[in-house]
Amino acid sequence: MALKNVEKYISELLFEHDCVIVPAFGGFVARSSSSYFAKTGNALFPPYKSIVFNKNLSNNDGLLAGYIMRKEGATYQQANTIIENFVSNCKHLLETQKRFEISGLGVLYRNNENTILFEQDVRINYNPNAFGLPVVSAVKIVKEEKVVAIKPELQYRQIIPAEKPKTMRRVAIAASVAALIITVLFLSTKQNPIDNAMATFSPFITKNKIVFAETKINEAIKPIETKIKPIIAPDTTSIDKTIVVKTTKVVVEWYKQPYQIVVGCFAVKQNAYKLINQLEGQSLTASIAGQNEKNLYVVSIAGFDDKETARKKLTEMKKQYPAAWLYKR
């Protein structure tokens, strides 16, 4: 029970102090950080204290022991004994289980190089100025696909009037033609009177009657009637025009590829978002590529479907992130 209390005391001291040393084990150092927005998680974090672990801070400064004395009513020697038991338990769990969780503070674990690392539990904010300020999540608004129907505009039938025949002009032409015909007929039938008289005394000439052909002038000058039908525009009022607006969504799911280039793994999801936010600030694309066999959230900066391409990209990225490695899902 006393060991659990030590975890609680360390956490309480970090609200008031920037460094809490656990003798013969290491120190927890708090650094103030400003608020930030995680683009990937769409979350706004208030100002907070980031906690890091430094194994080189192992000298007893009496801060933790004095706090235990006040809380437990113990002597200085008894307080140090409680701390020694706590440290022994931490080291044992790190050796056997590779991790040790300090309630309300974070997780201590060993990596592949057997180095002790610490991951803060961001659910507790040690900055007193941010008391009562929660993490605000921004929900992305997705526009639903809709069918937009445009009602046909009211259209009217347009009647184009027929062109009026040029009656006067045609009557004038017909009159000129009639006058020309009469003149030709008159000239063709007019003869000299003497020639006509001499012709009657000739025994060889038979008197012929001059017969004028009856010409129906009225029919000749009858104007030509042209029937021009009016043009009627088709009625389009019954045509229904419907425009269907379709949107094409392109989803890039590179983080689901089998080969991932990983730059960090975290037990707390919020910490993974913090790293992603830092990477995006460096113009890099990053995302959570699921959880590994230890249930840690894997932060990846690239994903590929074949191993050879992933290896080439890993060699390139190691120049900027030497600790990056290739992870097979």
Structure overview:
It is a single chain. 32% of the residues lie in helices and 22% in strands. The protein folds into 3 domains: 1-141, no CATH class; 159-232, no CATH class; 247-329, Alpha-Beta Plaits, CATH 3.30.70. With 329 residues, it is of the alpha+beta class. It has helices spanning 2-14, 63-72, 76-96, 167-189, 193-201, 217-220, 269-281, 307-317, and strands at residues 19-22, 26-33, 36-38, 43-45, 48-54, 99-102, 106-110, 116-120, 136-137, 148-149, 159-160, 231-232, 242-243, 259-266, 287-291, 297-304, 325-328. The protein is elongated. Helix 2 packs across helix 3 (76-96).
Write a concise synopsis of the structure shown.
By secondary structure, this protein is an alpha+beta fold.
Q: Helix and strand string, N-terminal first?
A: HEEEEEHHEEEEEEHHHEEEHEEHE
Give unreliable regions as ranges. Answer: 193-221
In this structure, how is the largest beta sheet organized? 4 strands, antiparallel
Q: Class by helix and strand content?
A: alpha+beta
Number of domains: 3
Question: What is the distance, rounded to the nearest whole angstrom, between the alpha carbons of the first and last residues?
Answer: 40 Å
